[in-house]
Design brief:
5-stranded parallel beta sheet; 237 residues; 9 helices; alpha/beta; 19% strand; TIM Barrel; 4-stranded parallel beta sheet
Length: 237
């Protein structure tokens, strides 16, 4: 039915306009910012509606959900990144499903990605997840250890570092900008090193509640879930 989930279309267009206005406000080109639809727990019917509204990139938190929705991503020829905490024993399922893993939070995980994508004869694009707020409750690489890990990853053969991602401490005020600013500095510092196998193009930061501040500080990819799809259904099987 055409009117089913029609609010998703309205949400996508509203967010696209807000991204455009924010970019103009801060002297950026709107084409520099990609809007990702975070489809965690959402049924395929909602993904179809979002895609028709203009979403050309999705993000899933769990490998199991990516597997369940694989037919949609294949049929519509739309990419999906893994953006949630990833266990090493799940990596083996990913080479046929995605070429990009945004949530690489340890050298151990990077090693497994290198191994499994090599076995499959493929190359993975990865983003390093930075624990920018140094929070015990969140995974991620400590800010001051990132450069050391970058140098190690420059030697790998089956993965390429494409950028950084973060989830800053929850803060719906402008104060959150300092975390995004620190991420931007790290992103630029790494880019300036011009290391082999390090091709920085993704600065993934900003979600439904703070993406405007993230854009102001240089985000190239904002991850929006509830702002597009509405409340999540955590009872989904």
């Amino acid at each position: 039915m055409e009117n089913t989930y029609s609010y998703i279309y309205d949400n996508v267009k509203r967010i696209e306009e807000e991204i455009r206005e924010t970019c103009i406000k801060y002297g950026r080109n709107p084409s520099e910012v990609t809007l990702m639809g975070v489809s965690k727990t959402q049924p395929v019917e909602k993904l179809v509606r979002a895609h028709k509204a203009g979403i050309t990139l999705f993000g899933e938190n769990r490998v199991q959900e990516l597997v369940q929705k694989a037919d949609f991503f294949k049929e519509y020829n739309v990419p999906c990144h893994i953006i949630g905490t990833l266990q090493t024993n799940k990596v083996k399922y990913l080479p046929p499903l995605t070429d990009t893993i945004q949530s690489v939070n340890s050298l151990k995980l990077a090693n497994e990605i290198e191994k499994q994508y090599g076995k499959a004869g493929k190359k993975a694009n990865i983003c390093l997840e930075i624990n920018i707020g140094d929070e015990d409750s969140k995974s991620g690489i400590p800010y001051n250890q990132t450069m050391e890990m970058i140098h190690q990853l420059s030697e790998y053969k089956n993965l390429t570092v494409k950028g950084l991602m973060c989830i800053p401490p929850v803060d719906d005020t402008e104060e959150v900008r300092r975390y995004f600013s620190a991420m931007r500095k790290l992103f630029v510092d790494i880019s300036d090193k011009k290391l082999d196998n390090i091709n920085m193009s993704i600065l993934s930061m900003g979600m439904s509640g703070d993406y405007k501040w993230a854009i102001a500080e240089g985000s190239t990819l904002v991850r929006v879930g509830t702002g597009i799809f509405g409340a999540r259904n955590y009872n989904i099987k």
